[in-house]
Amino acid sequence: MQHFTISSIAILLLVQLIPETLAQLADAPAPPGPPNITAILEKAGQFGTFIRLLKSTHVGDQINNQLNSSLNGITVFAPSDNAFSSLPPGTINSLTDQQQVALIQFHELPYLVPLAQFQTISNPVRTQAGDVNNGRYPLNVTTMGKQVNITTGIINTTISDTVHSDYQLAIYEVDKVLLPIEIFGPPAPAAAPAPVKSKQKGTSIAESPSSVADASAAVKLIWSTTGGILFAAAAISLWLSN
Ligand SMILES: *[C@@H]1O[C@H](CO)[C@@H](O)[C@H](O)[C@H]1NC(C)=O
Ligand SMILES: *[C@@H]1O[C@H](CO)[C@@H](O)[C@H](O)[C@H]1NC(C)=O
Ligand SMILES: *[C@@H]1O[C@H](CO)[C@@H](O)[C@H](O)[C@H]1NC(C)=O
Ligand SMILES: *[C@@H]1O[C@H](CO)[C@@H](O)[C@H](O)[C@H]1NC(C)=O
Ligand SMILES: *[C@@H]1O[C@H](CO)[C@@H](O)[C@H](O)[C@H]1NC(C)=O
What we know:
β4 and β5 form a beta hairpin. It is built from 10 helices and 6 strands. The termini are far apart. The chain has a 6-stranded mixed sheet with strand order 2-1-6-5-4-3. The chain is of the alpha+beta class. It has helices at about 1-25, 35-45, 50-55, 60-70, 80-85, 95-105, 180-185, 195-200, 205-225, 225-240, and strands at about 75-80, 110, 140-145, 145-150, 155-165, 170-175. The chain folds into 2 domains: about 35-185, FAS1 domain; about 200-240. Bound molecules: 2-acetamido-2-deoxy-beta-D-glucopyranose (5 copies).
């Protein structure tokens, strides 16, 4: 009887608590939703150019979609307006659309890195621009205490502020635009990425130099042999041209 009473009370409590908990669970994520990177940066101020580029390249939409659909989170290095204005005039506008997308994706890590975790991250850090293995988008981090230095091989900078940090999005202010080697460095050495492209496209082009070489070898052979063969070769080529 006592058992019955206790379990009845327990069930009564559960019945009352469950809907409340469910209601809280349902309520909790809905109003905040996934964080909106442009809204956060607008509120922070000082990021007008970066916001404009997030919009024009649609990387901002990609980030918002990733935040809504992936559990990995996102880390963003946001260059301040001062960072952009200290670039030589026209630097950004002279880039192709594709390069602008890559540049902005270079400022995004497709996973969350809380500030303290930079101490143990391995270099080169993988960015949304990808291509770590070919070494054309290296982003290296070194830390000392709370100081986090970033180098791209073109620029060195330091995280100067944490703009935003939650369980899925971290935004760090940087005082320089992170310029990747792929876009701002010396041209890639012909050895690395070039053969992949030229193998397919260049087949017919590659054949002509070698047939030229064959022809000149044949001419040399002809000149080094007797006039009889030379005459024969001339006759054959006359016959071929008819
Ligand atoms: C994010 O915020 C910006 C600016 O506040 C707004 O224009 C945009 O519609 C928002 N995007 C989403 C997905 O809510
Ligand atoms: C997030 O994704 C869900 C579906 O997975 C969609 O219904 C919702 O509108 C999305 N929210 C935003 C802010 O994009
Ligand atoms: C970070 O950079 C500053 C100067 O830019 C330098 O003094 C400092 O030693 C660097 N720290 C690390 C950990 O690389
Ligand atoms: C980044 O770090 C990797 C691994 O330590 C190193 O091989 C590479 O040269 C570094 N690149 C730059 C630009 O510092
Ligand atoms: C960046 O820092 C490294 C040493 O940490 C230095 O060798 C290099 O010259 C610096 N590059 C620029 C562009 O300041």
